[in-house]
Amino acid sequence: MTGSFARPARPRIAVLGDILLDRDVDGSVTRLAPDAPVPVVDVSEVRQSPGGAGLAALLCAQRADVVLVAPLADDADGRELRRQLADVTLVPLGHEGPTRRKTRVRGSGQGLVRVDDGGPGTPAGVDEATVRRVREAVAGCDAVLVADYGGGLTREPLLRELLAESAERVPLVWDPHPRGGEPVRGAALVTPNAAEAERAARRLPEPPTDGDAGVPAVADVLRRAWDAQAVSVTAGDRGAFVATRPDAGSGGVPGVVRHLPAEPVQGPDPCGAGDRFAATVVDRLARGDGAATAVREGVVAASTWVASGGADGFRRARHAAREPAERTGPVSGVPISDGPVSGSPASLEEIGARLRAAGGTLVATSGCFDLLHAGHVTMLDAARRLGEHLVVLVNSDRSVRRLKGPERPVVPLADRLRVLESLGCVDAAVVLDDDEPSRAVAALRPDIWAKGGDYTWSDLPEAAVVRSYGGRVVTLPYLPGRSTTGLVGQVRAAEPVPASIPPTMRRSS
């Protein structure tokens, strides 16, 4: 992989892999069968949606334009997959056998059995003309995700050549499968889980010794064996271990291995967490992030996925897509001051990752918001219309005093947060103790940084931070004649403070 990569506001991502049809059969169990000691499920609902590379593509499509290249059977289930993948550009390949299906049967919320059928799903009829069609489809993409589900796509020689070419041009993320092909050389990131990594390491011509059997050591062994830029081994609630290529001129010494921990979460269905992780990291790499930063965000997104119900929760949401999506509840009171912002369970990094994992564009703004007035509300409503989530950074009382003088704020921080949280356009209100938000913006990484039209780019030191990761700065219409300073002046002019009142009692903060 050579050169530097552009940082588009909405990247274009190619997903290549094997599609499945995931089905959930829900019902109630009140009796056993008369002919065998097995439960009888009275079916109440059946849901189905794309799985495998299809799920990965749908998750990528929440924040990017997606091209999906995959074998697709010409049967009823294949037609259902086409219908449900209408939001992505589909480049179908020939498919050997019927559509692969995974059906999960639940009785009264308890998983009873999973039934796999169909397949094998091996690409059929892949020739030079097919590869030319695929090459044209992925030519303008900013990143590539290989979502291998063992169907055979990653073993197809002509497609492997195309993937190797792509790895030299753009970031390529390879999510491997034990039955799939080995990652092509030069991948930006390979993402096996711990079991897959250990299995792959044992198959190497020179497998790790007992001293190199730990997950961090295995990550670096695989990175060198696969000649990848980085390898991330995910280890469930332990997070991920990321091995990166050493700097040039290091004499071939092992690269750096970082541990990126995960917040412990509980959820009924961890299925699909790997797809959520892979979709997140390829999106971040497409936007110009390094491997460690992308994996850190992927770990948070995967934890959020599990906590929100996993693949079953995702399918339920799609099944009820005609109803308005439930918005993420407000998050408040996270202090951002001197020191790291990542130590809190609700740090800006985690808030940003959680909202991005929900899909859509993340917008952020900042201000004192003392005596909330029509100008504030107009600006916040306009900011929210720019995307699906709005985070407001609220200057602390100390910061407001430094910026506005010792008589401010008129309204203390707790009340300002409470008022902002009550607005339907605000997803999270977060405390900012710094006088300018550059450090907080770097942690949150909003897609759009919005400020009122009374500001210009030269007034915003954080604008350079936003540009550095590919975000956009948007100035919003300014409602003239509305300001907290003006309101305070009008109130004080109308009701002068008696001279007998001590100065320390003239402030409300």
How many strands appear in the DSSP assignment? 20
Radius of gyration: 26 Å
What is the count of helical runs?
Answer: 16
How many strands, which pairing sense, and closed or not: the largest β-sheet? 7 strands, mixed
Through-space gap between termini: 55 Å
The top-level CATH class of the largest domain is Alpha Beta
Overall pLDDT confidence: 83
CATH superfamily of the largest domain: Ribokinase
Number of domains: 2
% residues in beta strands: 15-25%
- Level-2 CATH architecture of the largest domain: 3-Layer(aba) Sandwich
Low-pLDDT runs = 1-6, 248-252, 322-329, 336-345, 499-509
Shape category: globular
Structural class: alpha/beta
Spatial sequence of strands, sheet with the most strands:
8-5-4-1-9-10-11
What is the fold named in CATH at topology level of the largest domain? UDP-N-acetylmuramoyl-L-alanine:D-glutamate ligase
Helix content: 25-40%
Describe this structure in words.
With 509 residues, this protein is α/β, with parallel strands linked by helices. It has two domains: 12-319, UDP-N-acetylmuramoyl-L-alanine:D-glutamate ligase (3-Layer(aba) Sandwich), CATH 3.40.1190.20; 335-494, Rossmann fold. The protein is built from 16 helices and 20 strands. A seven-stranded mixed beta sheet has the order 8-5-4-1-9-10-11, sandwiched between helices. Strands 15-18-17-16-19-20 form a six-stranded parallel beta sheet. Strand 19 (448-452), helix 15 and strand 20 form a beta-alpha-beta unit. Helix 1 packs across helix 7 (273-286) and helix 7 (273-286) runs antiparallel to helix 8 (291-307). The longest helix is centred in the middle third of the chain and has 17 residues, at 291-307. The radius of gyration is 26 Å and the shape is globular. It starts with 11 loop residues before the first strand and ends in a 15-residue tail after the last helix. Residues 1-6, 248-252, 322-329, 336-345 and 499-509 have low confidence and may be disordered.
